[in-house]
Amino acid sequence: MTEPRKVAVVAGNRIPFARQDKTYRHASNSDMLTAALNGLVDRTGLGGQEVGEVVAGAVLKHARDWNMVREVVLGSKLAPTTPAYDIQQACGTGLEAAILVGNKIALGQIDAGIAGGVDTASDAPLSVNDHLRNVLLDLNRAKTYPDRLKVLARVRPKDVVPEIPRNAEPRTGKSMGDHAALTALEWGITREAQDELAYNSHMNLAKSYDRGFQNDLITPYLGLEKDQNLRPDTTLEKLAKLRTVYGNGETATMTAGNSTPLTDGASAVLLSTDEWAEQHGLRPLAYLTHSQTAAVDYVKGAEGLLMAPAYAVPRMLARAGLTLQDFDYYEIHEAFASQVLSTLKAWEDPIFCKERLGLDAPLGEIDRGKLNVNGSSLAAGHPFAATGGRIVAALAKQLDENGGGRGLISICAAGGQGVVAILEK
Amino acid sequence: MTDRYQTFTTTPLGKTLVKNLGLPDPTPLPRWTEGSQVIDGPVVFGAIGETDAGKAVQALLRDIGASFSTAAEGVASSTIRPKAIVFDATGAVSTADLTSLQRFFSPVVRQLAPAGRVIVVGRTPELASSPEQQVAQRALEGFTRSLGKEVKRGATVNLVYVAPDAHEQLDSTLRFFLSPKSAYVDGQVARIGTGPLVSNDPARPLAGRTALVTGAARGIGASIADTLARDGATIIGVDVPQNADPLRKVISKIGGTELLLDVTAVDAAQRIAAHAQEQHGGLDIVVHNAGITRDRRLVNMRTDAWDAVLDVNLRAPERITKHLVESGALRDGGSIIGVSSMAGIAGNNGQTNYATSKAGVIGLVQALAPSLAERQIRINAVAPGFIETEMTAKIPFTIREVGRRINSLQQGGLPIDVAETIAWFADPASAGVTGNVVRVCGQSMLGA
Fold it and tell me: For the Ketoreductase domain, which residue ranges apply (chain B) (predicted)?
């Protein structure tokens, strides 16, 4: 076997993220992913060309979109001979897609590939309930009219009500926010600290737009040019006034301001070998060097739902031979401000690091000035599967702009999972 | 949770029905309140000969200002209604001496006031100086347990076994059993051994001590936290993050600190120890109150229901105790209190998991008491019977009604009854009390 090849992040593109039921309310997942993909193709001059593979996914997906990514490719400016497949790992989908593409590149199976993700919280897939579904399937199986009538007689008024996808963990019935609220309490994360993180996210994202950083990372879509959730004029006072939406009574700390809103959007990232990039007149922004996933048992309450990255990162660091402080940038996906702060606090905690991670010493503090320097999900929004692509592209560009360095990506996902990676240049 | 039947029995119609139909007639039990005396009525004292224990009992009665007379003074024929009858039987050296029980009690017991107290003090049978003495002393248990069922109107009967040379340790235990604090403790046996003599203010026996209470947000746990705080302890209230809000309400009322964690977490013990040491410099009292039920008959028992109950009720106390003791977070002279259950003693249909865990708590007490004694750390458990809580309020009506009535006091206990018993165990003056499992069950017929 040959040596693994270096995996370069060459370019990235996304559409601005829109708040649920606003600008993109009639856009489908396929529409948005196509827009993000075409924007990337335009920017990289790949129109009509074939790439090794397109890998993407959506968390909330219609049943008809069973082959969504391939269909998107067929409707895009890429060559129709480009293979594609769908994946799904909740909020980790986008980053996992990049890891999968990167692995094939590293192994020499492809030279270039595109990783992406899309989600709509507006164009949600409603489905008929299980009872009506069974009736309809039986109807299909019935051969004679009397049999069909007999089956149809089973339809009941309640069957009119469709099933709406719930933003809840199937095994606990609790929403992600409720889970995060428990973790916040366990780690004693204050309202003030969460609001401050949210405020910094908005300020950092606003600054990145102001300095033109986002110009070649975003293609406007349906008249939207910036992330709709961004509040450049927000203040700590305004954030402090919001009422809490998760948790109970006086111990509740989580608000709509320090939790990510439901959002619509799509992103795509181009990865390749150095040679392929050069042949196509492109240049590496950074390299995807390490990745790791982890999962925790949140069902029995042994660990918080969103704490898996706290486990994934130290495992990755051990393999990479790095410490938590060996980074110039930290991109910790802000599912909730409390998730970021709980994770950071866990890494600083000797008991957590010893008893739960099995480490002799805590991972320690990070320089907060290096955290989410161009804003993150609290400001930009979080269309689940699209977040990974947003972060990979922005971090790669930041590393390139910095003339080198190393960045850590950490993304928590439903089901108690975490996907993390390292970009370096 | 109000006992509607008991309320009904106090109405004129209720009184008539109860009397004519022979229905249970529970007497409302007075509880200790701020400023209550240990005992608010005359005490009759009797003994088999003059003993150290007898002298210690009389000294205490003088100390608490009780007016007491000895049986020899002709109590039987008098008109006094004793609030308590204390009998020192440590002097019984053979079965011949058991005659005194009947001779002393038969005339006096009918005079016992409502919610009265009967306490028999005996010599720990296993430590008796002769087989004859051991037989006689062991026999006392049958006497007190039967008398407990005979006395009416909220009166209780308990037996206190005291080891040789441990009579100076009797104070805190006698105070507890004499006072309304033991309202729902009936037909029990407490064993007192030797230990260092601790004199503290009986009004605030836990002053300067730090107490950890798990499951402190609600029900019995909240009452334990309140009661230990009343007795002067600084409380560390532990509960799962789901109960953060009720826990804050409990703690903000009594002071102390909150610690949100699941006691089954791998690092729970370490977190508790670290919190106690950083915030309070250490711990003196640990109450393993957190508990859950997941009732199912064994044939239908799901693995997770079995595991969850054993994890919370038994493995967590076991692990946390071990760490707190080994790390030194629990200071020498400390007190560990487990919460067992009547089900752990008698067994209960649909509670194989729960009863296993609660019997295991008794095992924990018995297993650790001897070795912890080297550091003067004591370990005891309460075993509540039917206690009126949110949890028992959910029991179907008929089962609940039966559960309430099938005990000598014909009523359910209150969380405070469990809490008071724990406060007695926690009291540093109870230095001789270790390895005990005392039921707070109104002398339930189950597993008696």
Answer: 209-385
